[in-house]
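Practice problem: predict the structure.
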Amino acid sequence: MGNKFDWHKETEKQWDQRASYWNENSDNMWDKGSRKTIIPFLARFVPKGSQVGDIGCGDGYGSWKLHREGYKVIGVDISKQMIEKAKARTVPEQLMFEQGDLAELPFQSESFDAIMAINSLEWVEDPLHALRELSRVLRKHGVLCVGILGPTAHPRINSFPRLYGENAICNTMMPWEFKKLVEEMGFELLDGHGVYKREVKENTIASYPEELKQALSFMWVYAMKKNF
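Answer:
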């Protein structure tokens, strides 16, 4: 028999390999692309000066933008290469980066006032366990801001090999599944919104029910409040 597949090590390896490509494109994603609405959305619910964990921070550009908006930020990513690129930015005192695994976060319980985790839960072997870790490090009444890839997101192709019985490091969790998980954990939904490819005209779908909007989405972004 071959060696048992280690999801976590393979995830670290593959994101190390993607670090340079990600670094070349992350500024545009956060400034003009699929992630441009996220920080203004988070800021509606999280006071400036709060301690925010950016879990799955990649090369740290989103963390840097959070800091620019007045937050104290710690960025975490499983990829050593991503963290090295994050640290290579001009790092102010209240912006730190640390390599860490979402399945076992290197923080004490109730360390953060808010958590931002964008397209992170799709890359863990056990999303429910990862959500419990996010909940553990989030303070009571803290805000969890999560972006889940929608059905039209091309990165979901990374889960396709599982149909051949092959190993994959991407889950296929849908936005509505994430919502159900966190609500059953006791989180309160504050709000959510969709991010779409340019072919989808938001004025056309404005009257659609949420499940149809999500079916067309590239990503769905939620804000949840921990009341326990």
